[in-house]
Amino acid sequence: MAPLTNIDSLQKDAGAIEVEKVASLDVGNVPKDVDTPLTDEEKKIVKRATRKTDWRLIPILGACYSISAIDRINISAARIAGMDVELGFRVGDRYSIALLVFFITYFIFEIPSNVVLRKVGAANWLAFLCMSWGLVTFGAGFAKKWTDIVICRLLLGLFEAGFFPGSVYLISCWYTRFEVQKRLAAFYSINVMANGFGSVLAYGCMQLSGRNGWLGWRWIFIINGAMTMLLAVLGRILIVDFPDKVHKSRFPFLKPAEVASIQAKLERDRHDAEYDALTMNKFLSACARWELWVFALKFFAVTTIVYALAFFIPIILQGMGYSVGMTFLLSAPPAVAAVPWIMLCSWAADKYHLRSPFIILQCVLGIVGLMIVAYAKNNGARYFGIFMGLAGANANIPTALAWQANNIRGQSLRMVASGLQVGFGAIGGIYASTVFMQKEAPTYRTGLWAVTGAQLYLVVSTLGMNYHYWRQNKKADRGEVVLEGMEDFSHITMSAPQQGRQSPEPETQSDAQAGQQAQPNQQGGETETQQKSDDSKNNLPSNPEHVLAKHSEETTSKKV
């Protein structure tokens, strides 16, 4: 009996060590028992952890990105508020130059910023960026000549470059494939809503014209810059780090068991909960994947219409004969009305596990809106076209981001992919700022057609990528390829993906045993091993809270 006693003692000691590891949440300590069904109590832990993450992560990131977008596009409000006259922006293409230079630095520093983000921590880096572009925006209010604004725009692009891809990367590391679009949509919708009211804020700033001898456009930059710096301080306090690093926070917002449940959820979803450091070989390998470049070009097409409408809606409205004040007020309702559509599309896309059909639908909506703006004679009809264009354009942002995030694995790859994708979005801004020529004001038909062409390309490339992924899934079903290094991985296409497939040649002994015990499911080729949760049994895996691992303290206590 003595040996048994010793074994029991060893088991208890090992269990204690494992629980201690879970409490400290080392980077390598991702729960591995991800196929065990959850108890009701464990499901509650998962739901609570996800809900707490939602409220802690999404609002502050959305608020900071909103102020960045306002600081980026408030140049259009400043132009109407007197900057054109005082600094001579009506001469030639000076305004287009000021718009364009922002995107040069914005494009260059996307991926490097993501690398720094991972090294220094999300809260430190994102708050630093926010404070920096706030200072630049504040300084733009003291410009003496038009070239000063150009320099400020270059610096603004440098500091804003990292925030959006960093936020997308951070969010995608906290949520599963069919949780992420709703969260990206909520994050982005805060920005859309704020931009709508940003025009009202700009109008309020204009009322300070004459105070301290400054015109209204200066107050727009000064007040927006001051607000940004205050928000940066709040961001430093509230922004959370990656799941594998969040335990290092001085005031952690999740308990150890809750963080473990998040990590296990991610491991079950795509087996990349652990961080894999970015090396030069991994970077070059990522750059060699042609799919990432297609997604980047697709995002270029997505952002062309977003930037075009953001930069030129106030000018188009003013060209309809509205006063400056009415122009700002009329800019808000289309943006606010777009938010319910964004959230509805994202909810449906996550629920039905679809991406490309929604991209095409939103492209059609955007194209119809642009054509109404370009050719309708009635101002009311043109204004309705702005509503349609903004809804379709902005709803495609989270959809396009989620589609790429859903089809790749590995945190280092995700880091490069998000930076590259959002970087090409900056090229969309360059494109939009150059095709709208001043001599065509206020109709800008060449610009509207150029943006429409980008949307048509988006439709064609979406169909092409969908066909490619469909073929890859078929090959994987036949056992000819392994997608993304994961046996049961499926790409997202026009139809909902399979949630698992039996490996024809299991690589490990445990995999082989699981393959021998599993029986095919008549409805979708799924196995009993892959159907242990209630949702999987009903072929309804769209409720992500049920796709998780067991509570780590209980699971690890069984290990030796």
UniProtKB/TrEMBL annotation:
Compartment annotation: Membrane
Positions with biased composition (Low complexity): 512-525
Keyword match Transport: yes
Gene Ontology annotations for the cellular component aspect, listed alphabetically: membrane
Main location: membrane
Feature: compositional bias, Polar residues: 494-511
Compositionally biased tracts (Basic and acidic residues): 547-560
GO molecular function, one term: transmembrane transporter activity
Ranges that cross the membrane: 95-111, 123-142, 154-172, 184-204, 216-239, 292-316, 322-344, 356-376, 382-403, 415-436, 448-469
Key words, A-Z: Membrane, Transmembrane, Transmembrane helix, Transport
PANTHER family for the chain: MAJOR FACILITATOR SUPERFAMILY (MFS) PROFILE DOMAIN-CONTAINING PROTEIN, PERMEASE-RELATED
Protein name: Major facilitator superfamily (MFS) profile domain-containing protein
Organism: Didymella glomerata
